Amino acid sequence: MFESTNLDLFPYPFHNIKEGSNYRYSNDLRKLDKDRMNCVRVTPEYAKQIKRKRELLIEQPNVRFQSYPHTMEMQWEVAEMLMTMAVEAHPEHFKLEKNGNHWTFHNFILNEQESFIFGDASSIELEPLDLIGRHFATDFVLMVNRDDNLYLEVAQESYAALFSPHWNKGMTFDEIHGPVPFVSRTGVPLAERVRQFLLTNVLPGEPWTRINWNLMANRWDVNYETHDTWGPTRHLVHAENAGELVRLRVEEQFFYRMPRSNAILFVLNTQFLAMKDLAQRPEWLNQTYSILSDIPKPMADYKGFTPFIEPTVEYLKNLVEKVSLQAK
Predict the structure, then answer these.
(1) What is the mean pLDDT of residues 295-305?
(2) What tens digit of pLDDT does each residue of 91-133 get?
(3) In a 3-state reduction of DSSP, which class is residue 112?
(4) Angstrom distances, CA of residue 206 to CA of 1, 35, 121
(5) Is 67 a domain residue?
(6) Structural domain of residue 238, as residue ranges?
(7) Is the residue at 258 inside a domain?
(8) Inside any domain, residue 141
(9) Cα 144 from chain centre
């Protein structure tokens, strides 16, 4: 349903790993070039993604969106940035009309429009980020900078990987990433290193990015509140069905320092690729098989795919052999 149909748009996560090398956690953030600073993407799956995102927000409103009352001004700031980016990136799909504080945002793909008084929460039924966020397939997490840390104070998330706005609201960056099982050579936890890097380097007008990845078994998202539903499905995978059930989940992450609030906005562009579709790019198939064959158990445990990594690797091994024979 949401699997990428255009592999040229898929953010394959292992491009920067040399052939024959293994994947290990690192601070892999990189500064965005000026022509890549816009995070708004319109893929062939856009309409399906928006439809499902809105369904999830309606089904679990308190799980999928959370905020504090004092964040309204921050949310308007983020909403303005997203609408402006949408128009700049895709003027054929989006338009923003301003008449003083009376604004109208047009979404031509969905044939919808949102009219409101900018800065006036009484002019809209939802909170600003919850309203405007429903026009973008990406998820959003706004973390406020204070006491040399980052605190999660607003989040709208539909394609979660062991995360929930309801569960994680109010947590610090370190608390959210506390389970990361790795430290630097000097003994500093990786989460602490990344937090310090973000606080120091993500400045207004200077966004950064990184790629995060995971494996999903027969699910598009896994949050804490639905563990009883998705937890058992991880044990249904075997070497014969892994190609259909297991997907490479890739999160293209963007980090923006908001100039007025000084908060950092995390934008998460999540895309999926079924294991079977790796056959369309043999170089991806071979590398993914090599990397997953050598994943350390603590990393597999942290990412949550330990129950099905072995049958997935077995499936990929068989697929590599099949593709190799077809190429001869």
Answers:
(1) 88
(2) 999 999 999 999 999 999 999 999 999 999 999 999 999 999 9
(3) strand
(4) 34, 12, 29
(5) yes
(6) 7-327
(7) yes
(8) yes
(9) 19
Query: Angle CA(133)–CA(135)–CA(139) in degrees, nearest 5?
Result: 40
φ and ψ at residue 262, rounded to 5 degrees = 70, 5
The C-alpha atoms of residue 150 and residue 129 are separated, in whole angstroms, by: 19
Partners of 273 in the β-ladder: 248
- The answer on pLDDT for 32 being more than 70 is yes
Query: What predicted TM-score, i.e. pTM, was given to this entire model?
Result: 0.92
C-alpha distances (whole Å) from 132 to each of 48, 152, 170 are 17, 19, 22
- Tokens 């190609």 map to which residue? 243
State the pLDDT at residue 182.
57
291, two tokens: 């990397």
Q: Dihedral of the CA atoms 150, 152, 157, 162 (nearest 10)? A: 80
Among 233, 240, 244, 253, which Cα is nearest to 276's? Answer: 244
Report the domain count for the chain: 1
Distance CA 191, CA 179 (A): 9
Rounded distance between C-alpha atoms, residue 71 and residue 76, angstroms: 9
125 in a structural domain: yes
Q: Mean pLDDT throughout 142-149?
A: 94
